[in-house]
Specification:
Oligomer: heterodimer
Structural class of chain A: alpha+beta
Mean pLDDT of chain B: 92
Mean pLDDT of chain A: 92
Largest sheet of chain B: 8 strands, mixed
Strand order of the largest sheet of chain B: 3-10-9-8-7-4-5-6
Distance between the termini of chain B: 53 Å
Order of helices and strands of chain B: EHEHHEHEHEEHEHEHEEHHHEEHEEEH
Number of strands of chain A: 13
Shape of chain B: globular
Chain lengths: ~300, ~425
């Protein structure tokens, strides 16, 4: 099959995406496909129109690749692609919108508020931060509403930390999510499938630093991973149930990775859903797949098969 | 028990020194600057396009015609002897007398830095650098686990009073520093040149405290304004290790640098180089030799200086036009870099994401310090982009900085209002 792998692009996660993309491209080659690597730039559409690939594998991370933009473009061009569609991507990449949907669907998620840059620049939202702190309590996780790989995330342990943490987040997006910090066990639930869904074994992440930040994600040795996660059977089952609910609530097809924190009472709370999970050497989806007996090439084969199924 | 996934199965057996080697968010973000739609003022690349390819082609052809077998062979560890005469001529251009037996040719000056670290630094040793300083040197040093003491600079270079305090403090507590590392000309990243008076003063202090000085001089030949100062080696051969390179006046890709040092140190460097790579590439050394003996290398350097001067002027002019009252910056008389300092509340590493969004990139200042410092500073390169690109880049940067200021004010910083701050719609 003639498959184009989209990678790189102009997002802040360009480098991570190139790493994902090259690995996927190798795997597709091994699987016998005719592979075209595309570092996304202003020539993307003409190149796709000329090459007419039978499938586009989206290995982009971050803005434009994960937020529905490129998916919409591929819909217009009538080119099949891997991963969830426009709606799921647009909502999934925006943590603020995703969490609104979680609330509507009664999916447990840590309490939060969302503020835009305009509220600070034009409405004096600085003076509302005290109320945010009072209502949610500290520590608070402050993150850009739309940004991947934990870029721009800070933990505010007190009222004094809040303005700076907000400013940091606003470098990455014009909306900031202020979320109650939930202490507990972090797990990632990877889901494969279209009609019939399959949850891969849970991956538990134990970062050496205070949280699973960018460096912890991409530096071997800075985080320990356990797969399957070290959870009581009932808790793990509940986490999977909630992850499947989340995947469906956002209308995902093919694949997603739902990041969950199991609070100290054993309740899984959903932090976010990723529609283009990393495929690097240190990424969680390939790790979960391996634990389920799917090596990397096999995982890529399954993802291609699921993508084609979507169009049949 | 659930299996622990170890991403790197060898993580338990690496040496402790590898802990100071890691990837960073900033490095990954700067990966985007390779894209043509982003104006990168971040790199440190010399403008190799200025080189006439025919001069290189002729040099290569001469080498192959004269002795292709030697060019393809191993060479002596201390370097291709005829090339040493060329390197000495380069040093003499700057008024630094030297003899072939005083130097060892290395794989770029970077290898000399690494070897210096290797032969001098035990874990816990003390060394002194300028603050800020060259990242490549800091990384080489840090991997041997020293304590780095930093000396601030003003427009005349290292502040000697501070240096004296550090030297006397360390000596009094029995922790005599192994060496003082300095880039006296158009320093990377600060663009500052150490005054002649300070050079004498620095050597006096080094003498008083019996300390070596490592003089890294990659940019000395690229002075396009003002009078040259004597090199430290020309003032005191006995305690200065001098590092030179052809990277900025010929080719960074050929990887040719050298160290001129007191002979006992040279002997140790030779052993270190033997262990590291036996010898530098004979081929590139012979090509460089052919170029420096048969082509107009001085004319080429002159041309580079004219290009860089014009680009520096474009950068300083644009900074003046767009960022005066917001940032301060250095006025380099040569080299490749301007160092800009913003108000304390601006963290340039955090602002980088917004800058990349606005399609301009720089290097945040924090990386040029061994410990957390310089967070409101940035390094701007003027050697690689043409004048118009530089002006547009600074214009974009100013817009980002102004938005940053207005955001900081909205979040409680006491910042005076600027004349022309952008509205949200300008973003």
């Amino acid at each position: 099959m003639h498959i184009a792998v989209l990678m790189g692009g102009r997002s802040l996660e360009r480098d991570v995406s190139l790493r994902s993309g090259r690995r996927v491209s190798n795997a597709l080659g091994v699987l016998g496909h005719d592979v075209l690597d595309l570092d996304v730039d202003e020539n993307l559409v003409p190149v796709l129109q000329r090459e007419r690939p039978e499938l586009v594998y989206i290995a982009l991370h971050g803005k434009f690749g994960e937020d529905g933009t490129v998916q919409e473009l591929l819909e217009i061009l009538d080119i099949p692609y891997t991963g969830p569609g426009v709606f799921s991507s647009a909502i999934g990449f925006n943590k603020a919108l995703s969490k609104e949907i979680f609330l509507r669907e009664s999916i447990p998620t840590p309490p939060f508020f969302v503020l835009s840059e305009a509220t600070f620049q034009e409405m004096g939202a600085l003076h509302a931060l005290a109320a945010v702190g009072e209502k949610l309590g500290f520590p608070l996780v402050v993150k850009p509403a739309a940004q991947g790989s934990a870029l721009g995330i800070k933990i505010a342990t007190s009222q004094e930390d809040l303005p700076e943490a907000v400013r940091t987040a606003l470098h990455y997006d014009d909306r900031v999510l202020l979320e109650k910090y939930v202490k507990g066990t972090e797990v990632a639930v990877s889901i494969l499938g279209n009609e019939e869904l399959r949850a891969l074994p849970l991956v538990e992440t134990v970062p050496h630093s205070s949280f699973f930040d960018f460096d912890a994600r991409y530096t071997p040795g800075m985080t320990e991973y356990y797969c399957p996660a070290r959870l009581e059977a009932g808790v793990a089952e509940r986490a999977v149930e909630i992850a499947l609910l989340t995947h469906r609530a956002l209308g995902c097809l093919n694949v997603s990775r739902v990041d969950i924190i199991i609070d100290e009472g054993g309740t899984p709370q959903v932090l976010e859903l990723n529609i283009s999970p990393g495929m690097t050497e240190t990424s969680l989806l390939p790790m979960a797949a391996e634990s389920a007996g799917l090596d990397f090439n096999e995982l890529v084969r399954v993802l291609v098969k699921l993508a084609m199924e979507k169009y049949s | 028990m659930s299996p622990r996934f170890t991403l790197d199965p060898f993580s338990d057996i690496y040496a402790h020194r590898t802990q100071s080697m890691y990837t960073s968010e900033i490095r990954d973000m700067l990966a985007i600057t390779a894209r043509p739609d982003i104006i990168s003022l971040a790199g440190g690349l010399p403008y190799t396009q200025a080189m006439d390819p025919e001069t290189i082609a002729r040099s290569v052809r001469r080498v192959l015609a004269e002795d292709h077998a030697a060019a393809l062979q191993y060479g002596p560890t201390d370097g291709f002897a005829p090339l040493k005469h060329c390197l000495i001529e380069v040093m003499r251009e700057e008024g630094t007398p030297c003899f072939p037996e005083d130097i060892i040719i290395t794989n770029g000056a970077q290898q000399a830095l690494e070897m210096i670290a290797k032969i001098f630094i035990n874990p816990g040793d003390h060394i002194i650098t300028e603050a800020p300083s060259y990242v490549g040197a800091l990384n080489s040093f840090l991997s041997y686990q020293p304590n780095i003491h930093t000396i601030p600079m003003d427009e005349g270079g290292m502040v000697l009073e501070e240096l004296r305090k550090v030297l006397s403090g360390l000596t009094a507590s029995g922790k005599a520093p192994k060496f003082i590392y300095t880039i006296p000309n158009f320093q990377n990243p600060a663009g500052i040149t150490m005054s002649a008076e300070r050079r004498f003063g620095l050597l006096e202090l080094a003498h008083d405290y019996d300390c070596l000085v490592v003089e890294d001089n990659p940019y000395g030949m690229l002075r396009f304004e003002g009078a040259a100062c004597p090199t430290l080696r020309s003032l005191d051969e006995s305690r200065v290790i001098y590092l030179g390179t052809l990277s900025k006046i010929f080719s960074a890709g050929m990887r040719i640098g050298w160290a001129a040092a007191p002979h006992p140190i040279l002997d140790k460097l030779l052993l270190a180089k033997q262990a590291a790579d036996l010898c530098s590439s004979t081929f590139t050394q012979m090509v460089a030799h052919s170029y420096f003996t048969s082509e107009d290398w001085k004319g080429q350097v002159q041309q580079l200086k004219e290009i860089y001067r014009s680009r520096r002027d474009a950068m300083l002019g644009a900074l003046q036009e767009h960022l005066s009252g917001i940032a301060e910056w250095t006025h380099p008389e040569g080299g490749l870099f301007v160092w800009a300092t913003f108000p304390d509340f601006i963290k340039t590493s955090e602002m980088l994401a917004a800058a990349i969004d606005a399609k301009v990139a720089y290097v945040p200042g924090g990386g040029f310090f061994p410990y957390q410092e310089g967070e409101s500073c940035m390094r701007l390169n003027f050697s690689y982009s043409d004048e118009e690109t530089i002006k547009e880049g600074i214009k974009r940067l100013a817009k980002v900085a102004k938005r940053e200021i207005s955001l900081a004010r909205a979040l409680g910083h006491k910042v005076p209002r600027l004349a022309e701050e952008p509205s949200r719609d300008d973003r």
